[in-house]
Write a structure and sequence with these properties.
Rossmann fold, single chain, globular, about 35% helix
């Protein structure tokens, strides 16, 4: 599987997905928007992986590349490509599919449980699981998409659209090193406080949480690979 990655900031990268791809022999290339990279051709990838970032999916007016990124995502969906969006990535896909993006009632930062819908079983997700969160925005469910879960702090935690497009509001790819990078860059958001913000020092204590989350991320990547194999068979 050829994976192309849209990365919006240097401190939100592939995390455990890079390890999975290398282990399985899948190749990946990247567009680093913060470096001014150009967009790829649509025939150069099998899976478009859209990562997180601190900007809003509504920020077309002050981020030069965001409108072009949305158009590329729209074209990828129209061409029936495989797409996986994480955090901001899920919001961008949702926006392209006609959903609205708005501020969540409260920021959700740290480790919090998600209650999954039956739809999430195809992704290998159990009825309840712990995930790492770092977001202030949320989205409405796109028309034609099926929800995959909710948390106490956020009603929409993800969706599946036409089997080949998956949006995850939460992070399962985050490794301890990746979490440290995110904390270093965005700790001021966590210090704002709120009912769904975990103390920063507590986020890195339980390494087993990262291991379990990364394993669930591998299961989701396996789902995407299976859908690709079905599409080309």
């Amino acid at each position: 599987m050829r994976i192309h990655v849209f990365q919006h900031v240097p401190y939100e990268g592939l995390g455990s997905i890079a390890r999975w791809a290398e282990k399985k022999g899948h190749s990946y290339s990247s567009t680093h928007f913060y470096k001014g990279d150009s967009l790829p051709s649509h025939d150069s990838y099998d899976l478009l992986l859209i990562l997180g970032g601190p900007m809003s999916a509504n920020d077309d007016f002050n981020i030069d590349w965001l409108k072009a990124e949305k158009q590329f995502i729209r074209e990828a969906i129209q061409q029936e490509k495989m797409l996986l969006g994480i955090c901001l990535g899920s919001q961008l896909i949702a926006r392209v599919l006609g959903a609205s993006i708005s501020k969540n009632q409260n920021r959700e930062i740290g480790w919090f449980p998600i209650t999954a819908t039956p739809n999430a079983m195809v992704l290998g997700l159990p009825q309840q699981f712990q995930a790492f969160h770092w977001h202030g925005d949320t989205f409405t469910l796109p028309k034609g998409a099926t929800p995959i879960g909710h948390s106490e702090g956020c009603e929409q935690q993800g969706f599946i659209y036409q089997d080949r497009v998956v949006g995850l509001q939460f992070h399962l790819e985050t490794t301890p090193d990746a979490a440290r990078e995110l904390i270093d860059a965005c700790e001021h958001e966590a210090k704002e406080g709120g009912p769904h913000i975990q103390p920063v020092e507590a986020m890195l204590l339980d390494l087993e949480l990262f291991a379990e989350a990364n394993q669930r991320m591998e299961q989701i990547m396996g789902y995407m690979l299976t859908q690709l194999e079905v599409a080309v068979s």
